[in-house]
Amino acid sequence: MAKKRIDTSQFRERVSTVTEEGKRNWIYATKPSGRFYKWRSYLAYFYLGIFFAMPLIYINGTQFLQFNFIEGRFSVFGKIFWPNDFFIFAIAAITAIVLIALFTAVYGRIFCGWICPQTIFMEFVFRKIEWWIEGTPTQQKKLNATPWNLEKILKKGLKHTLFLGFSLLIANAFLSYIIGSKVLFQKMTHPIDNFGMLFGVLVFTGMFYFVFAYVREIVCTTICPYGRLQSTMYDNDTMQVSYDYKRGEPRGKFKQKAELNLGDCIDCFRCVTVCPTGIDIRNGVQMECVGCTACIDECDDVMDKLDLPRGLIRYASENEIKSGKKSPMTLKAKAYTGVVIIMLTFLVALIVSRKNVDAKIFRVKGQTYQMSEDKHTVSNLFDAKVLNKTSRDIPVELRLMDVDGDIRMIGNNEGAVLKKESMNKITFFVDRPTEDLESHTSHIKVGLYHDGALIQTVKSNFMGPFK
Ligand code: SF4
Ligand code: SF4
Predict the structure, then answer these.
(1) How far apart are CA 88 and CA 152, in angstroms?
(2) Which ligand places an atom closest to the C-alpha of 36?
(3) Distance 317 CA to ligand 2 centre (A)
(4) Pocket test for ligand 2, best of 110, 238, 295, 314 (most atoms within 8 A of CB)
């Protein structure tokens, strides 16, 4: 019998989360198992550990990672970034956009299934709680259909209490990334005095609870703009979770396989029931697919049981499925990967090499030069504006570099200390021997030293008599 593809034209009529009547089609996904799920679980627990631990890590009193949009103060790797470091954030934003576009063009929506916080929390926290309390999808459906009784009240009550508890935890962690964990802790230990903060925590808790208890996969299938945009980034070489229709069709019962010359798909629907977005990957690439690979694990298990080769559903490009051959990494994929690695390396280098102290010096306005009485020394008065971006005071010493002369601090700036997270002003004289001055203006370099180590060099002009 000739192989014939099934009619899949109907599945695009509506999204998987909407019934024919236009109502919510609640997705009861089965619990996946298999090698990909195992690796996703490891990654998810690692990710969750990092997510909750990161706001508690401090380096020299600065939170390891913080994005205080309210005060325009950011800290990355324990370094504080100020509005004048905005270019780094601009480069980070451009890198993120390029990274997402190129990464998606080559590797599809792997970010959604493996790294996106929505998927990690939904699949590895909230859905696990649901499976643990309410059981399999069949048991969940049965419980929902049952009139309210003690068992249902207890199960639903426990589930939603845990959902709220985890939402509260996530809200606190989320706010810690914004206002800082120490500030949050200090305010939350006096909630009545900090009602605004308490209100904020409760609003975020409610928001996360609503998303994970009710909105769920609709975030991925309908709301998330990245999901909507992905189709514009895909081409036939994009790697994605794909059903090998050439091998699988026509689908049918295993016992009729030989008799009817069927393909390897036994139409068991395990790949559909495990799908957290409720789609049938056998209908082809769909925007609802978050690339979680749960259907690969499920189908591989079926293939193992039937003693057929794994990979009826696998990670492959459209061209690979069409040609039946494994394509080598295309030149485009290699180039895109290279660009992404270069941009990320550049960004990390920028962040790591960013100076903690930023200084500028200017000759005091309206001043020219002063000559000593014996005419051996010429002095210029300077102002240094030094931004200390760290969260600690830094004692500094100013030294004239490369030329003879001295620096004389004036005012209260003896042994200047740069106040933390502030712009500091230091006023000082530079004294130079008159005989060294070859012209009316010359260049000088002033070094800022901390604990004997040079932390920054700044340049300015030195003014002397006309020669
Ligand atoms: S799990 Fe595999 S065999 Fe079963 S329906 Fe899906 S593709 Fe076919
Ligand atoms: S089709 Fe497969 S990879 Fe895509 S979301 Fe569903 S289970 Fe995950």
Answers:
(1) 53
(2) 2
(3) 15
(4) 295
Task: List the structure tokens of 257.
Answer: 């396989």
Residue 51 lies in a domain: yes
Check residue 6 and give its pLDDT.
44
Residue 293 CA to ligand 2 center (angstroms) comes to 6
Q: What are phi and psi of 148, to 5 degrees?
A: -60, 125
Ligand nearest to the CA of 308: 1
Q: How far is the CA of 24 from the centre of ligand 2 (A)?
A: 19
Mark whether 152 and 237 lie in a shared domain.
yes
Determine the distance separating the centroid of ligand 1 and the alpha carbon of 317, expressed in angstroms.
Answer: 19
Q: What is the CATH number of the domain that holds 378?
A: 2.60.40.10
What is the distance in A from the centroid of ligand 2 to the CA of 389? 46
pLDDT score of 82: 76
Q: Assess whether 143 and 270 both reside in one domain.
A: yes
Average pLDDT of 419-427? 87
Q: Tell me: do 196 and 281 sit in the same domain.
A: yes
**Residues within 6 Å of ligand 2 by CB:** 241, 274-277, 279, 281, 289-295
Exposed/middle/buried for residue 163 (C-beta within 10 Å: 0-12, 13-18, 19+): buried
Cα 267 to ligand 1 centre (Å)? 5
Query: What's the token pair of residue 328?
Result: 């080598």
Are 148 and 249 in the same domain?
yes
Is residue 313 domain-shared with residue 431, that is, in the same domain? Answer: no
Instruction: Supply the pTM of this predicted model.
Output: 0.79
Supply the range of the domain harboring residue 193. 1-60+108-323
Does any domain span residue 332? no
Would 207 be classed as within a structural domain? yes
Number of domains in the chain: 2
Of all ligands present, the nearest one to the C-alpha of 285 is: 2
Asked if pLDDT for residue 414 goes beyond 60, the answer is no
**431 located within any domain:** yes
Q: Say whether both 56 and 174 belong to one domain.
A: yes
Ligand 1 environment, Cβ below 6 A: 243, 248, 265-271, 282, 298-299, 302, 312-313
Statement to judge: residues 298 and 395 lie in one domain: no
